[in-house]
Amino acid sequence: MSRRTKKLRAILTPILIFFFLLSSGSPSAFALSTEEERVAGEEFRASVLRQLEMVEDGFAEDYINDLGQYITRALRPSFFLFNFIS
Questions:
Q1: What are the angstrom distances between the C-alpha of 55 and each of 33, 45, 73, 80, 85?
Q2: Residue 85 within any structural domain of the chain
Q3: In this model, does residue 83 exceed pLDDT 80?
Q4: How many structural domains are present in the chain?
């Protein structure tokens, strides 16, 4: 596996786990306010940026952004702005 693939996998894995955890279980078991979710997302993003070296590749950035927008399209209407590339 190439170094680039490992970095991309390291970036995508926590994001996918985050979305899985938000979508699993009953809503009453894990409920946050809109503001709490926004803050949690900002903290998660800051943590990722601190811990990982970001890939500066236009093709990869476009792919990740397009994939993220495709996945979140099902969540519309949404109170959140989804950012997949810093």
A1: 32, 15, 24, 24, 10
A2: no
A3: no
A4: 1
In a domain? residue 83 = no
DSSP notation for 19-38: HHHHHSS-TTTS---HHHHH
Could you tell me the pTM of the whole model? 0.49
Write out the residue range of the structural domain in which residue 33 sits. 3-75
Note whether residue 25 is domain-resident.
yes
Q: Which amino acid is at 18?
A: F
Residue 72 reports pLDDT greater than 70: yes
CA distance 43 to 49: 10
One-letter amino acid at 42 equals E
Q: Is residue 82 part of a domain?
A: no
